[in-house]
């Protein structure tokens, strides 16, 4: 069976590191590039971390394209989640700088190029704010038709957000870009915190990773401490949410989740900035509005959490 071509748009990030390592050990897919974006860290550090993680996994053959340093509206006041992932994004381990370098192309250019080179065959797994994907759409209006699928980690459908009661972090990072992407007409699946908060790595799971002979599993245990501490403080739980690995595995095996379909718009201002508003009603509204004639997307509503954890553990321990 031909492997699915994947580009991971990422802001590494502890759970990004987990997702990248799982991706590199998933025989169903071929990772053809990483593109970087701000979010858990600033973009420059995201690029450094992406290169470092590929070196740790001995996959420096995979290109890394650096993404935008500002939002789609040129905003520079970015929300950076260093209090979750550490000031270096990887658990305050301060690893030595990677030997590799990013390619000369920007992330948006790389996305457009690969979608054109392999029309209908590339899946983008977007693990951070959606600026790079929105820029790709601006650069090439045909991008939504050329790209095979976009799996978005983002949104707080049917539940409160994790930045504030209204917004989830990735969408809050660039709401204008998110609204462009959700309404672009591409084949989109959104995996929100309504499902990722059901997928938990426990202390016991972490101990199993530490005892395995896998270099990648042991590396993750080294960086996971701060992530566990944050979850204990913020959520009063002894586990960590597997946001990014869940979205990655949704691209690998869509049957792990169930979806409902409808139109998604993103609030771009005010107290609910970053809120994902989902309309899956069959009602015919009486007037034309900002919702009229918009393309639908799939939004995840359930997840087989035990299987997601099991697959992730197996692929990390057998790497």
UniProtKB/TrEMBL annotation:
Pfam families recorded: IU_nuc_hydro (PF01156)
What the entry lists under SUPFAM superfamilies is as follows: Nucleoside hydrolase (SSF53590)
Enumerate the catalysed reactions.
Answer: uridine + H2O = D-ribose + uracil
Extract one GO BP annotation from the record: leaf senescence
What is its subcellular localisation? Cytoplasm
A GO MF annotation of the entry reads: uridine nucleosidase activity
Q: Which UniProt keywords apply?
A: Cytoplasm, Glycosidase, Hydrolase
Annotated ranges, domain Inosine/uridine-preferring nucleoside hydrolase = 6-308
Gene Ontology cellular component annotations, sorted alphabetically:
cytosol
Checking InterPro entries in the record gives: Inosine/uridine_hydrolase_dom (IPR001910), IUNH (IPR023186), Ribo_hydro-like (IPR036452)
EC supergroup of this enzyme: hydrolase
Look up the EC number in the record and give it.
Answer: 3.2.2.3
Main localisation: cytoplasm
What role does it play?
A: Involved in pyrimidine breakdown.
Annotated PANTHER family:
INOSINE-URIDINE PREFERRING NUCLEOSIDE HYDROLASE (PTHR12304), URIDINE NUCLEOSIDASE (PTHR12304:SF4)
User: Which family would the database say this protein is a member of?
Assistant: Belongs to the IUNH family.
Q: What is this protein called?
A: uridine nucleosidase
